[in-house]
Every structure is written in structure tokens, then in C-alpha cells.
Amino acid sequence: MADDHWGEAITDHVGTTTESAAAVDTDEERVAMHRAQASGLQAIISKVAEDHLGDRKEVILANLRRELEAHGHRPQPHAWLDAVAEEMEIGHHYKC
Questions:
Q1: CA dihedral in degrees (79, 81, 83, 88; nearest 10)?
Q2: Buried b (16+ CB within 10 A) or exposed e, 17-42
Q3: Could you count the other beta carbons within 10 Å of the beta carbon of residue 2?
Q4: Cα–Cα distance, 68 to 45 (Å, whole number)
Q5: Which of 1, 3, 39, 85 could join 60 via S-S bond, C-beta 3.0 to 4.6 A?
Q6: Do 48 and 67 form a contact (C-beta atoms < 8 A)?
Q7: Backbone angles phi, psi at 90, to 5 degrees
Q8: pLDDT of 29-86, one tens digit each?
């Protein structure tokens, strides 16, 4: 009876609807660009980790920001930078 609350399930549908097509990113160029950016961020994180794993969070943050800027990345969200720095401070190599 719980299914009645949500309506009839469509099980014989072939193809995509406007709503489901919007949920899938088919823009391969944009996906490739996102992957390249993520790879670049990971390289920066790895570089900072090589030199500063286990250092104080403030030192790690300063180096992350400097490396990101030096490699042309726009400023990253504070919460994300903070999470990366906290992981490095306790000796964990953050993975994107």
C-alpha cells in the first residue's frame, strides 16, 4: 500500500524524460573539465601534504591558499579548505 502514496511505478519506460535527462550530465566536455580541475586540486593537495603533513592547520591553510593561487585556481570554499587542512594536521593525506 505504501506504493499507492507515491503513485504508479513506470516499469516499461524506454528512453529518458525531460526530467530524467536533466539529471544526467551528458556534456562530456564539462565532465572532462571537472575531472581535470579535480586532478589539479589533488596535485596541489599532494604537494602541500609532502611538505606539511602533520603541521599546524594555519600553516597548511596558508600553503594551500598560496599553491591554489599560484596555479590559477579561484578561491575555494572556506569549509572545504578547513576540512583539507584538518585532515593534514592529523597526518591524513586528503583525497578528492
A1: -170
A2: eeeeeeeeeeeeeeeeeeeeeeeebe
A3: 5
A4: 9
A5: 85
A6: yes
A7: -90, 10
A8: 888 888 998 999 999 999 999 999 999 999 999 999 999 999 999 999 999 999 999 9
